[in-house]
Amino acid sequence: MIKTVHNKTTLVLTLLLVIAFSCSAKKKITKDATSSQKVNIEVHSIAFYNLENLFDTINNENNDEEFLPNGAMKWGAMKYKAKLKNMSYAISKIGTDVSPAGPAILGVSEIENRGVLEDLVKQPSIADRAYQIVHYDSPDRRGVDVGLLYNPRYFTVTNSKSYRLHTADTAFLTRDQLMVSGYLMGEKIHVIVNHWPSRSGGEERSRPKRNAAAGLTRSIVDSLFRVDPRAKIIVMGDLNDDPFNESCATILGAKKNAEDVKPGELYNVFWKTLEKGSGSLAYNDQWNLFDQIILSNELVNGDKTKVRFWKSEIFYRDFLIQQEGKYKGTPLRTHAGGVWLNGYSDHLPTIVYLVKELKK
Description:
By secondary structure, this protein is α+β, with helices and mostly antiparallel strands. The protein has helices at 77-93, 114-121, 203-227, 246-251, 271-275, 297-301; strands at 12-13, 17-20, 26-30, 38-54, 105-111, 132-135, 145-150, 155-163, 177-184, 187-195, 233-238, 254-255, 266-268, 281-283, 286-288, 291-296, 308-314, 335-336, 339-340, 350-357. Mean pLDDT is 90; it is low at 1-24 and 28-35.
């Protein structure tokens, strides 16, 4: 049985700042009892979620045969509608106890095409957010892509680009990496959404492919730094590796300790979370933390009056978790062993919260 370690969200900022929550993205923050000074803070959640095989029921020009009405998963309209309802409900709850408006930016993976995202954002539980979509088709052999949803009330997109991974194995096809730039809280932010190659065939055998993916991500990061050495960059995704693995720690260069991160470097906010026993997916009776969010130095150690990192969270809620049976305590997925569970995903969402002081 997997032991779950979950740290409940705390509503305390550094310097004993206490948040008085309202129903908007803007929060009023009051300092400790020794001071009557009040500071207005805006808080937004930025999240990533592997939606686990969000396929439609149409036979498209990709490898989607498993997820068709006559396929192995018997993926018909009823299951598809249930999947959309479940995933949209989960998204409607992500981060709302801290930022009631929900994620301003949500990176997603394992989606078949733009159409499934269009169906997703129309679901009643999130339709009022009017999420917009950034998506490019990938050549992945399983027919899945990454994408980005954003709330246009809080994030304005100015540019996007899809990057393809090329390896020595020309027959190998995987997900493209998505870079989206825009303005959040009046400042330019760059988000890179990933779904690195899987561990199919074993971790060691498949490692070179993830290392190559990490090298591509690093090259995107470096290209942004060349334009702006103080660029605010968010790398997110299902990396199919843990924070301490070579791809993340060495090639991407995402560090464990914020104080060790220098200009031009990256901080892995979830490394210490995994060391404490929490993860975003479970395999072979242990937790892994493949669903990572990694930040550039400027978001972690930069100007305190600008947009900056506050805290992170694995979105662990009971409704996302198997409550009985062999896999009790692990993410409640859509299928297990060929049986339809009408669940959510085999991954849990991950979140970072960004804050900024508002001028009076």
